[in-house]
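quick one before i forget lol
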Amino acid sequence: MKGLHIVSYVLLWVGGLNWGLVGLLNYNLVDSLLGAGSSLARLIYILVGLAALYTIFTHKSYCKTCGGEKVK
């Protein structure tokens, strides 16, 4: 599960940075790298969304601040 947590974390960074660039500069990095509307770009967006859902539902168990049980 630690691997899934790390992948989820990285995907959240990708999504967050991309949305920051869209908001600040009107520049979509994912679309620029993979092509707007391409299947690969769509897959990245789906994976970022799934990572967000995973993090929402498992956050408390991994977060030191929230006092989860799985943190060592």
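fyi Residues 2-25 form the longest helix (24 residues).
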